[in-house]
Amino acid sequence: MKIDLSGKTALVTGATGELGRVIAHTLAECGADIALHYHSNEAKALELKGTIEALGRRAVAVKADITKQESIQALKQTVEASLGHVDIVVANAVVQYQWTSVLEQPAEDYTSQFESCVLQSVYLAKAFIPAMIEKKGGRFIGINTECSMQNFPGQSAYVAGKRGMDGVYRVLAKEVGAHQITVNQVAPGWTISERERTNGIAESDDYIQNVPLKRRGTDQEIANAVVFLASDLASFITGAYIPVSGGNVMPAI
């Protein structure tokens, strides 16, 4: 048994980011053609496009503002003109900001998280799910976070955005399930990425002491979960929030 995404097209938002690059590359390794969304790092997007094409897959790099509906609609038109119908959407992009306490966090940071977590997902759904309904199938995957369950000091804007996103995904899963479209979330823990491998992995004793597997996860392990949900192996999984955190957070029943 293996994951085969041949004949599928996947869109990854935030594809030039530390996690987005690995998700996009892993989807391509499994046979999918890839639409690479980026916000500003065109050079990295074009580099990744070349890497994916070297695997024998088609790829297109598209600049867009994921917090604006008209920009996502323009992205859709460009992607469909280059690669055709999108079968798999991975909403990975998020606005970065400086974390601080609720009392000190600027209001605009809450707005940015709402726009990049909740509204991005809504705009992507409006853009790409109608064609999935016509084809009677598709995969809609969001990158959430273990922070949504932790609610630690300093996380308020991020948690607010991601918990709002969680609500959208659960409702959407019920609304489009009859069309054999699955809607799921992957929630990474504190993840080791290429940046840390290059610059040095941060000390993590305080973190891993609470992780049952006693280590931090890797970007590849997050990407593996995404690819699984994108595949036919996950055809009967929808509405799920799946932590990939070594057991650091565990949704209860």
Automatic annotation (TrEMBL):
Kindly list the organism's lineage: Bacteria, Bacillati, Bacillota, Bacilli, Bacillales
Q: Which family does it belong to?
A: Belongs to the short-chain dehydrogenases/reductases (SDR) family.
Q: What is this protein called?
A: Beta-ketoacyl-ACP reductase
Origin organism is Paenibacillus physcomitrellae
SUPFAM superfamilies linked to this entry: NAD(P)-binding Rossmann-fold domains (SSF51735)
Highest taxon, organism lineage: Bacteria
For this UniProt record, the keywords arranged alphabetically read as follows: Oxidoreductase
Gene3D superfamilies recorded: NAD(P)-binding Rossmann-like Domain (3.40.50.720)
One Pfam family in the UniProt entry: adh_short_C2
